[in-house]
Structures are given as structure tokens and as C-alpha cells.
Amino acid sequence: MMETIVWVGFSQSLFAAILIAAKKSLQAQDKILSAWLFLLGIEFLTCAIDINLWDIPLLSSTFLLFNPAFFLYIKSLTKPDFKLKNIHFLHLAPFIIFEAMVYVLQEKLNLNNFFATDSNQWFRFTFSFASIISWIIYNFLSARMVFYHRKKLENEFSSIESGKSLKWIFFIVVFYNLYCGAAILVGVVVVSVPETTITQYIYNYSALLVLIYILGFYGLRQQKIFYPEIQETTKKEKYQNSLLSDRRKTQIKNAIIKYVETEKAYLNPDINMNMLSENLKIPKHNITEVLNVELGKNFFRFINEYRIEEVKKLLSDPKNKYSIEAIGYECGFNSKSAFFTVFKNITGMTPNMYKEKLGN
User: Fold this and answer.
1) Sign, CA torsion 231/236/237/238
2) 255-282: string of b/e by CB count within 10 Å (b at 16+)?
3) Is the pLDDT reported for residue 61 higher than 70?
4) What is the rounded CA–CA span in Å between residue 154 and residue 301?
5) Which of 262, 265, 264, 266 shows the shortest CA–CA distance to 254?
6) C or N terminus of the chain, fewer CB within 10 Å?
7) How far apart are CA 335 and CA 326, in angstroms?
8) Count of H helices and E strands in the chain?
């Protein structure tokens, strides 16, 4: 079974790496993902070789590869000015060093002997410590980047497409952390109960194979995300040295509200900060400041609250014959899922529940 898993993993990794490398408009994130998948393929190949030589895989350093590669991939997607530099390869140094030492010491992936007093005990402890630290640090940094990315999008767009929101990245973060947590739990069981028959390497490489399928599928479809850079600061820090007077802030606030309500700009599913700025002839950063400070809302929330109010009017109208989904599209939403999600976030109930409450 293990040999089947590693050979499938090897072939799928290389196949996905080649497909992504062959994309017409190759971006930095594509190069990172292609190289990442290629290295994972090599990891599966070396595992197959280990099994044939020693009947058991050697100690795997896939954590030390996955963590920094995932971090660099997310950074390449969420940073508009990201460029792949030689210094970025230093993130792979721990992976390369430990991978080489595993073969020098021929340390096998056998947790039953983890606490055995032998010449390699120091290496097992160091390897485990490095893997856990890598997981904690890189996962924190990766999650932080995705969080701020979402905040930036909400100041730029009224409708956030799945490609921009990186929902699949959220899924991988959750899946990967559950996988790591379970791997640690299995490891503790194996170490604590030496006679256990759990084969952790089958679990590790099976989960890794699933991740390769996910990365290959979504990575092939993922396009470059571009939007102006917004500093990752709090409202207080960001606007404490504002050049706008209170009078000017009020003027901008009134201009925004008048334009959106008069022109019903919120009905346009493609309305974004650029369009609003061009129509009002007001710099985007000034509009963002007024929305955040004066109204306490980001652009996404501001526009979608108008859309929800329009939806409520139509749902309350007994003469309305549109379906709930059609009403969502009519009021500026570009998808059913976005409509239902935003409606529930703002009102605390689904459109169906709201309609039932009205008794229509």
C-alpha cells in the first residue's frame, strides 16, 4: 500500500508541476508552486527508494518544505510588488540541511525508537523541535497575510470573487493544521505506546497526496491578484496624522452618500473603489479614510448594506414576483452564495428566513 501511495504521489506531483510551469502567463506564484510540487515529487521518489533499500522510509522533512513554500506562495499572491529573489531560497535551507543529514545518519522514520538512547537521539530531538517551530512560525505568518489580504479587498471591492478572496487557501490552512495536529497526536501515541502498530508514514504521505491534488487543481486556476497596496495598520495609527480637516471629511462623506443613493451605484455588481474615486474626483485614500473613520465601515460593508436594504424592500413588496435569487442579482450581487452570505452577516438571518418573518 505504501509503495502505491508514494508512486502515485510522485507522478501526480510532477504532472501538476509541469502543467503549472506550462501556463501561458507564468507569474511568480506559478514558479513557486511549480518548484514546490516538483520538490514534493522528489520527496515521494526518495521515499520509494528508501522503502526498497531499508523497507521503511527515512525520517521525512516534508514539514520543513511545506511550511516555507506555503508561506512564499501566499506572499506571492497577496503582495502586488512581490518578486522572487535569491534570498527567498534561504527559507528552504532547513529542509535541505535536514534532508542531507537524514541520509548521512540513515535515520529511519520509526517513532517507536524516538527516545532510544543512541548516537542519533540528538538529531531526532533537533529535527522534531525544528519541525514544530517551523509549523508555528510559518503558519502564523501565512494566516496573518491571508487575514490582511481579506481586509484590503474589503476596502477595494464591493463584490469579492473566489479567486480574489483565496477561499481555497483558507481551506488548505484548515486542512493542513488539522493534518499537523493529528500527526502530532499520532506521534505522541506511537512514542508513548511502543508496541502500537500505527504506521504514521502511511498517514503522512496519504495526507500529503491529498494536498498535492488540491494545490495542483486550484493552483492551475489561480490568477494574479492585483490591487493597490494598503498599509497593515490600525485605523488609529493610519489616520492619526490625517491631512483632512473635519469639515473636509464631512464634505466627502456627504458626497459619497449622495452619489451612491442618487445614482444607485450599489446596483452595479462591479462597482469598486476606483470607479467611485473617478466619479467623485476624490482620491481613493481619502474615501477609504472617511468610510473607515467617519462611517466606521469598509467599502465592501458600505455598498452591501445598501444592497441588503434594496433586497428588503423587494422582499417586503407583495407585488414582487421575483425569486429570492433573482432579487439578489437585481440588487447588485453577482452570485447566489455571495448574496446569501452577505445577507446573513448583516441581518443575522438568511433571505428565506427574512421572507418567512414578513409572512409574504
Assistant:
1) positive
2) bbeeebeeeebbbeeebbbeebbeebeb
3) yes
4) 7
5) 262
6) N
7) 10
8) 16, 0
Residue 86, strand partner residues: none
Q: Which residue type occupies 250?
A: T
How far is C-alpha 20 from the chain's CA centre? 18
In 3D space, the residue among 143, 152, 60 whose CA is nearest the CA of residue 101 turns out to be 60
The dihedral of CA 225, 226, 227, 228: what is its sign? positive
| Claim to verify: residue 208 and residue 322 sit in the same structural domain | no
Per-residue pLDDT tens for 121-151? Answer: 888 889 889 988 998 899 888 888 888 777 7
* pLDDT at position 85 over 60: yes
Domain extent, residue 243, equals: 235-358
What's the predicted TM-score (pTM) here? 0.69
| pLDDT for residue 228 | 44
Structural domain includes residue 137: yes
What is the rounded average pLDDT of the residues 74-80? 81
| Residue 229: predicted pLDDT | 44
Same domain, 256 and 164: no
Q: Which CATH number characterizes residue 354's domain?
A: 1.10.10.60
Residue (of 130, 136, 154, 162) closest to 272 by Cα position? 154
Show Cβ contacts of residue 130 under 8 Å, excluding neighbours closer than 6 positions: 64, 94, 98
Q: How far apart are CA 278 and CA 260, in angstroms?
A: 13
Give the tens place of pLDDT for each residue, 153-210.
Answer: 777 777 765 555 567 777 787 888 887 777 777 767 766 665 554 466 777 788 888 8
Q: In the numeric block, which cell numbers belong to residue 5?
A: 501511495
Q: Which residue has the cell 514544530?
A: 132
User: How far apart, in Å, do the first and last CA atoms of the chain sit?
Assistant: 58
